[in-house]
Task: structure prediction
Amino acid sequence: MERDVQLVRDLVVAEPGFEGAFDAHVFNEDGVLPHVFFWDVVQETVASFLGGDKTDWRLTLRFLEEQFRLDVPEVAQVVTTSFLFNLPWPDQPGHSLVDHLGPTMSARFAAIRPSG
Result:
């Protein structure tokens, strides 16, 4: 199994609140497309940060930080391009979520979006 697909599967195990989105994604896409699935991860993580209760944004950030630190290229690419880059911009609700990124993701976020 490819490492980026394994990332998605491991995330769903770590944060069961993503199970419904995962099931719908697999049904609609006829498989796992990590970059596409992570659009839902971003949306749900921001919603959780803003008070939603479907998932736990802290758990999601902690899991992604741990995975990002492993320095697996396929995982880093998904986390960077499909999670970090899609987090809210400074003028959008939930932008302060970026203040809670772990040190590795925070450094990467600053590199790819220096203006926030």
